[in-house]
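Lecture notes, unit on protein representations.

Consider one protein chain, 264 amino acids long.
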Amino acid sequence: MPVPIELRAVSHAYKTDSGPLPVLRDLNIKMAEGSFTAVVGPSGCGKSTLTRLIAGLMRPDEGQVWLGGEIVTSPRATVGMAFQNPVLLEWRSILQNVMLPLEIVKNKLSKSQREDRARQLLALVGLEGFEDKRPSELSGGMRQRASLCRSIVHRPQVLILDEPFGALDAFTREDLWQTMHDLRSEEPFTCLLITHDLRESVFLADEVVVLSGRPATAQYKLTVDLGDNRKIDDLYTAKAVDMLATLRHQIEVAQGRAPAEAAE
């Protein structure tokens, strides 16, 4: 079976007035079906560029991006995305916002089946009873829950999360980490998470990829060993603390604040 996501020797540079600005260099990442991979790295190292390449919004200068055994050349309906800003439409109810991808992506569902699907997801994330509310009537955390529902309502093969919890307060953020983790057992998908939060990466991911400084390559890969039934308290165990220390050191290496030879 084809690997859902694979980057093969991907390099990319942006054109600027002073010449090309290399962002990614010979980047290789492979994600197994149903896996959850977090990507961390210094600011400006190309994490968001990576999401655009996988989503088909951009094409790399060199190398190839593969999804489901096919080279990515354009946006694909099999990809769902959620961002830091939920971008919900105020003139639509929460239910209608969640149903939006089912109005765009080809499917065989009837209108009632689309509504049932959206209601099911909203119930899974604790938003049952808020289906008819407008986005402005919900808290930031509730809007982000609705955004997550919208990103998976069409059952995408791949889910891309670009810092979806970054603008939330610490308590709401941890609550949504648990929600996101619990969703995996109900809604299987292969997920790529871009984040600056090392605790978030360890709690949610099966593997954490640390990107080097620009032009970024895969500097280090950490296998997360916290089990499949995680709770926030697991972040305070000795095992989690050791993994976080390793990742912090790797970020310092990527920033040039620690010697590379000490990274192992």
